[in-house]
Amino acid sequence: MDRVQIAVVGLGRMGKRHVHTLIHRTPRAHVVAVCTNQPHEIEWAQQNEEYKTFGIKLYDDYDKMLEQPGLQAVWISTSTDVHSSQTLAAMAKGKHVLCEKPLSTDLEEAQSVIDAAKGYPGLKVMAGFSRRFDASYRDAAVKILQEGAIGSPFMVRSQTCDLLDTTGFFIKYATRNGGIFVDCAIHDIDLTLWYLSDAVPKACWGVGTLQQHPELKASNDVDNAVGIVEFWGGKIAYFHCSRTQAHGHDVSTEVTGTDGKISVNLVPRMNNVVLADKRGMTHEVQPEYWQRFEMAFATEANEFVDAILHNKPVPVPMETGQKVMLIARALQDALWTGEVSRFDEAGKRIEKAATENGHA
Fold first, then answer.
1. Which of 29, 37, 35 has its CA nearest to residue 5?
2. I need a surface site. Which of 127, 168, 215, 287 has the fewest CB within 10 A?
3. Are 180 and 241 within 8 A, CB to CB?
4. Structural domain boundaries of the chain?
5. Are 124 and 1 contacting, i.e. CB atoms less than 8 angstroms apart?
């Protein structure tokens, strides 16, 4: 098998970009189909000359797409509320799957997909956590985990802060994304578990505020939030999430250890150009996540395809996403209830009733 025949599901911002990456930056991938049930996305795809040039077939029915002869893999870039059902359907048809985070906003539903995947040992089923494929974050991981450059890591401070969206797109999207911690902090949580070697959560706190998007109140959501996670063994993580930044996409991570500290992108930059004038010295910032992580998405695509072609383990298994979601949901619950979410030493969530009975 020289190339993997793959279909991309969902033609929103991410789906369109994944198609472009698979066509132009993933030599051993062959995009044979795209699928969407959104009328405006269908109209856009029908007029796309590149799709016509590469012979990409357009579907408005997911189940029919799965029946396309020769199709081997599916890249799921739809809204979170259908990730699990589409992943299950693809596996049932014998297709390899890369599903964007999160697998579901419901932990039990996500676990059912992970359990189902065990019944298909020949399939590559992967969670889409793009920051694990970014060159800077990978270099930090080597320094922290392999070289011991900062001693024993015990604290992570990480943030995902998006440019303020005035188009209305974000508000529509936010109603289906599970809340600010599930949506914005999920990559930061994943990095934390990576750098702290799968530390076991002990307690989660969350607070938030509405400053720019009052419409989110109807979804019981906020546009800025801070979450703190205490891990068993004295490790700590601090997460800052924002959807209202004026200057651009501001994503950074700082890991502190017993012998030092590693920082990634604390001062975000579009490039290495600095303008010096009467105002001082200034530089531009990437407007959104794609400009910051475009090459990471390409690396992710190539490694997924390589796992299929050479029967290698996928670089980010579905189980990783479940661990991340466990913490994300605990932070979200803490934000909603104003109460601390707690875990036992095995990492199992302690329900509120048990806490009230003095078992926390």
1. 29
2. 168
3. yes
4. 4-123, 132-292+323-350
5. no
How much is the average pLDDT of 186-209? 97
- Residue 77 in contact with residue 12, Cβ under 8 Å? yes
CATH T-level assignment (fold) for domain 132-292+323-350: Dihydrodipicolinate Reductase; domain 2 (3.30.360)
The CATH topology of domain 4-123 is: Rossmann fold (3.40.50)
Query: Which tokens is 175 given?
Result: 């109603």
Alpha carbons 320 and 331: distance in angstroms, whole number: 17
- Rounded to whole angstroms, the Cα distance separating 289 from 158 reads 15
> Which is nearest to 187 in space by CA: 208, 169, 161?
161
Tell me if residue 137 falls in helix, strand or coil. Answer: helix
Please check the confidence at residue 192 and state whether its pLDDT lies above 80.
yes
Residue type at 259 in one-letter notation: D
Residues 304-326 pLDDT 10s? 999 999 999 999 999 998 999 99
Q: Which of 170-184, 208-222, 262-276 has the lowest mean pLDDT?
A: 170-184
As given in the structure block, the two tokens for residue 338 are 């104003």
Sequence length of the chain is 360
Q: What is the pLDDT of residues 346-355, one digit of tens each?
A: 999 998 643 3
- Model's pTM, two decimal places? 0.92
Phi, psi of 52 (to 5 degrees): -65, -40
DSSP letter assigned to residue 132: G
Query: Helices then strands (H, E): number in the chain?
Result: 13, 16
User: 230 by DSSP, 3-state: which?
Assistant: strand
269 is written with which tokens?
A: 């930059």
**Contact between 243 and 162 (Cβ < 8 Å):** yes
Cα separation, 207 vs 191, whole angstroms = 21
